[in-house]
Amino acid sequence: MTEGGKKLARVKNLLKSQVKIGANAQDLDRYAEELILKEGGKPSFKMVSSYYWTTCVNVNDGIVHGIPKKELVFKKGDVVSVDIGMYYKGFHTDTSFTIGLDVDSVTEVFLETGKSALTEAIESAKPGNHIFDISNAIQKVVTKGKYSPVRALVGHGVGKELHEEPQIPCFVSGVREESPKILEGSVLAIEVMYVTGSGEVKLSSDGWTISTADGTISALFEETVAVTNKGPLVLTN
């Protein structure tokens, strides 16, 4: 998975340069597939039943699972989230990023908050800790910024399957000791999903796109992280 993660990191970094004003989501998706195939991998998301695209692309109020359509053209002020996974030598890795296109300072602070939350969450991914600790790290940073974590969606384990146990909420739920223990050797797709509004969500008529119910802005940051006896190791960065 280490090798696959490095390959996906390269794909991600090249994709970032193509998220710009005037570009469209379909072209971005096709470029992503081209890059993954060049790396010797396969698009993980195309292995999901009834999903036919390499990426999920969301803009502004879109949170996750957005279909990368040609008519989705990025414009000034947009907040664009891109989620991408790669299957390589029997294992999946998964990563996401969000970019603001010539956004105002308020939105810049919003996006920096998500990056900080992901950093804190990753630091909590240590043997002997609990999933609660990751969730708590995300919630603390997000709510300190006066934003809301998305409660209907979760991060997850990742490996031979794209989505594995344990589930990793972006918010605290239940008692720490009753949440799954973080085990050495496990690999986690840690996701920070948060919004400027209430955090409630709705499903689009396309059957995939999940957006904020109140139309407020959302962002998504994600890395695949291996839990080692020396601490967390980010595979997709």
TrEMBL record:
EC number: 3.4.11.18
RNA-binding keyword on record: no
Family: Belongs to the peptidase M24A family.
GO biological process per UniProt: proteolysis
Its biological purpose: Removes the N-terminal methionine from nascent proteins. The N-terminal methionine is often cleaved when the second residue in the primary sequence is small and uncharged (Met-Ala-, Cys, Gly, Pro, Ser, Thr, or Val). Requires deformylation of the N(alpha)-formylated initiator methionine before it can be hydrolyzed.
Cofactor note text: Binds 2 divalent metal cations per subunit. Has a high-affinity and a low affinity metal-binding site. The true nature of the physiological cofactor is under debate. The enzyme is active with cobalt, zinc, manganese or divalent iron ions.
Gene Ontology CC annotations of this record: cytosol
InterPro entries the record matches: Creatinase/aminopeptidase-like, Pept_M24, Pept_M24_MAP, Pept_M24A_MAP1
Record's protein name: Methionine aminopeptidase
Cofactors demanded by this protein: Co(2+); Zn(2+); Mn(2+); Fe(2+)
Alphabetical UniProt keywords: Aminopeptidase, Hydrolase, Metal-binding, Protease
Pfam families: Peptidase_M24 (PF00557)
GO molecular function, one term: metal ion binding
Chemical reaction(s) catalysed: Release of N-terminal amino acids, preferentially methionine, from peptides and arylamides
Species name: Candidatus Woesebacteria bacterium RIFCSPLOWO2_01_FULL_39_10
Signal peptide segment: none
Location of the Peptidase M24 domain: 4-229
